[in-house]
Amino acid sequence: MLGLGKKDTLLLLLVTALTLCAPFLLNPFPVNGGLAQFNAGYPDLMQRFVIFGIFAIGFNILFGLTGYLSFGHAAFLGAGSYAAVWMFKLLSMNVLPAILLSVVIAGIFALMIGYISLRRSGIYFSILTLAFAQMSFALAYSVLTPITNGETGLQVTLSDPRILGVTANADGSIPVTHLFGIEMRATEVLRMGAWEFQFSAGYYLCAVMMLLAFYLAIRIFRSPFGMMLRAVKSNQQRLYYTGVNARPYTLAAFVISGMYAGLAGGLLAAMDPLAGAERMQWTASGEVVLMTILGGAGTLIGPVLGAGVIKYFENIFSKLNENVLHGWFAFLPDGIEDVLVAVIYPFVGKGWHLTLGLMFMAVVIFLPGGLVEGGQRITRLFRRGRSPEAQRRRTPAE
Amino acid sequence: MEAIILQTLNGLDKGSAYALIALGLTLIFGTLGVVNFAHGALFMIGAFCAVTLQRILSASFVTLDETRTDFLGNPMKVETPYVEAWFGPELGGSIIEWSVPLAILFSIPIMAAIGIAMERGLIKHFYKRPHADQILVTFGLAIVLQEIVKHFYGANPIPTPAPDALTGSYDFGVLLGFDPNVIIYPYWRLVYFAFAALVIGAVFAFLQFTTFGMVVRAGMADRETVGLLGINIDRRFTIMFALAACVAGLAGVMYAPINSPNYHMGMDFLVLSFVVVVVGGMGSLPGAVLAGFLLGILESFASMTQVIALIPGINQIVIYVVAIIVLLTRPRGLMGRKGVMED
User: Fold this and answer.
1) What is the CA radius of gyration of chain B?
2) Which of A220, A330, A352, B113 has the maximal Cβ count within 10 Å?
3) What one GO molecular function would you report for this record (chain A) (predicted)?
4) Other C-beta atoms within 10 Å of B339: how many?
5) A354, B136: Cβ pair inside 8 Å?
6) d(CA B13, CA B5)
7) Residue B339 at interface with chain A, using a CB cutoff of 8 Å
8) CB-based contacts of A162: which residues, under 8 Å, 6+ apart?
């Protein structure tokens, strides 16, 4: 179907089903129950899941396929956000032109940075991209203030022209982002007994975009172009000796992944018309690296998985505080309860970064293939002994 | 002329910090071939060694002074640091005051222990893995170290003053025949520069004039041959890692009075230090030091008002621009050796 193999079609259908049913799947706990804080099915967080999923899918096209580790991808996300907000300010609050422009701007930006950075490989490439991203960040904060509005961040205001839209609503409020009239913040709430499910227009727009991005990524992975990128990763020297210039391929991969980042930035701005320079900071670039590695670099589903896990931790685990923990362990004797809470507390709430760091280190050390490899190992454990054929196939031909 | 001297001086202290961190990075890279993203965290831990020692020294007990009363009419509570009780107020007071310089002694064993633990416990297993993996695992380690420090010391910067005797400024202009108050420079920054020069000199002397250093240099040049000669080069490289950690830690200890330590100060310095290493040439120790000072001074020149008026925003990006130009025109950096990291 759609030019995909049987396995890929299955994967795409699975991801489609999961994203479309996400409002149900992410809200498994009753609203008033004690576990309600683990519900992730509210629009804001769901949007983040898919938007950062797009960002990570794009990053994976560069890092997973070619092995070039960019530490400056957040610059493209930031550029996309700025472009989208400017579209909202000048043209109209319709998200479509904004998203298109953010992809184009990020693509051009990636072309410029990639053209220079890709002259070097390995650690030099990482540092060049890092330098460019930090430079963009510093410029956005200082000299480019007329474009980026400096520290305050770029916002839509009541005095913007908006040629095709309205400057202000009839009641004097700032118009909201919409897609041909469907407001992005519109949310339907469905109550079923003790459960509550939220369906937001913004989420579904992002979800459709992610599915498109995911489909495109599968096609790239399976195309001759994707094979070429893998060849760059496994042995660039050999490619040169066979008379292939790898640069155009890596540059194309860099630009594509930059455009993915731009799309993510545009969507972020479409959901909430704000853009700040901190989106370009290198810690933001580090985050997408974490997502991709955690999920599994070079795999299709890995980056999405990693983005989901990290965003879930960031929003849900960071809310746990000492009282919640005491509530959980209340059934234990007092002494044990206090000890348990004291042990667990540094890892949740404000300290969730610690858990993230430890988890990331564990993945890099023990599971270089990320969560996906973990899953594969577990399934293999169950299948062991049944098919010696599969066992033999595991050793790749070098 | 005054402006040039002043900016050069201003650049020295930042340049010293860059040079020290970059020196440590290069030591690790040159010996073990590992790109250490956790080096900034080591710098940060050094600064927190100074904070810790200051806290330990000012640990105090409370006594009730019956002769005086506080505003509620209760007997006044007087806090006396233990150190003052043991050594008398004179000596005890100055010990507390000089806690930052004293932290140098305190931090060396700690940093060495952390360095050895890091190398033996983690980095050792990553020699054969690709550079990307090394970057990633040390990046993760940096996050973990940062969060541990944040857990114990909180997220706010902790002011760590220098001794009173060194808090003033020195009027350099008078010395060189300019008008007074034209070129003034804080004492502590002078101390920092002198300290950095001393540490750098010591590291170079150690590598150049001792047998141990000679073996290490031989190992940097050709690890395999040194190993074949029956020398346990791994153990020596572990010690070099500990040395690099100490250098970063010392840079952090002495930097505490200049910039109140907070948990992410390491990351801020790390990015710049990597740029410094690349500009200086990966694996070249003199290159790292030279580039550190050069970039520090360049940065301070770029923040002169006249320069900013000419090219707005240049002070923010000058280091990166220089790095990009150097990488594209001289890929090996200013003093890079052939064959290092050229894949």
Assistant:
1) 23
2) A352
3) branched-chain amino acid transmembrane transporter activity
4) 8
5) no
6) 14
7) no
8) A88, A89, A90, A91, A92, A93, A175
What residues contact A125, with CB distance under 8 A and at least 6 apart?
A68, A69, A70, A117, A118
Q: How far is residue A81's CA from residue A105's CA, in Å, rounded to a whole number?
A: 10
In this prediction the ipTM stands at 0.80
> Using the 8-state DSSP alphabet, how is residue B312 labeled?
T
Say which residue the tokens 């339907």 belong to.
A188
How far apart (Å, rounded) are the C-alpha atoms in residues A103 and A258?
8
Q: Do B147 and A139 touch (CB under 8 A)?
A: no
Is A86 within a domain? yes
Angle between helices B39-57 and B99-121 (to 10 degrees): 140
Touching check for A344 and chain B: CB below 8 Å?
no
Which range of residues forms the domain containing residue A14?
Answer: 6-281
CB-CB contact of A361 with B144 (8 Å)? yes
- Give how many domains chain A has, as a whole number: 1
Q: Dump pLDDT digits (tens) for B52-91.
A: 888 888 877 877 777 777 777 777 777 777 777 777 777 7
| A369 φ, ψ (degrees, to nearest 5) | -90, 5
What are the beta bridge partners of residue B185? Answer: B170
Could you tell me if A265 and A51 are in contact, meaning their C-beta atoms sit under 8 angstroms apart? no
Summarize pLDDT for A311-352 with one digit per residue, the tens. Answer: 888 888 777 777 777 777 777 777 777 787 777 777 777 777
**Position A334 in a domain:** no
If residue B118 lies in a helix (H) or strand (E), which one and from where to where?
helix B99-121
Rounded CA gap, A34 and B2, in Å? 68
If we measure between CA atoms, which residue out of A357, A291, A351 comes closest to residue A325? A351
The domain spanning residue A30 has which CATH number?
1.10.3470
Across the interface, whether the CB atoms of B274 and A365 are under 8 A apart is answered no
Residue A350, in any domain of the structure = no
Q: Do A361 and B137 touch (CB under 8 A)?
A: yes
3-state class (DSSP) for residue A316: helix
Question: Which residues does chain B have within 8 Å of residue A143's beta carbon, measured at their own beta carbons?
Answer: 312-313, 316
For chain B, which domains are there?
2-59+99-329 (1.10.3470)
- CA B279 – CA B319 distance, rounded (Å): 9
Lowest mean pLDDT: which of A66-80, B14-28, B271-285, B326-340?
B326-340
**Is B141 in the A-facing interface, judged by CB distances under 8 Å?**
yes
Give the tokens for residue B169.
Answer: 């400024």
Of A206-210, A275-279, A328-332, B157-161, where does mean pLDDT reach its minimum? A328-332
* Helix, strand, coil distribution of chain B in percent, nearest 5: 70, 5, 25
Alpha-carbon gap, residue B204 to A115, rounded angstroms: 39
3 state DSSP class of A149: coil
C-alpha distance from residue A2 to each of A5, A9, A58, A207, B173 (Å): 9, 8, 21, 19, 77
Q: Which residues pair with A182 in a beta bridge?
A: A179
Q: Which two tokens stand for residue B60?
A: 């105090």
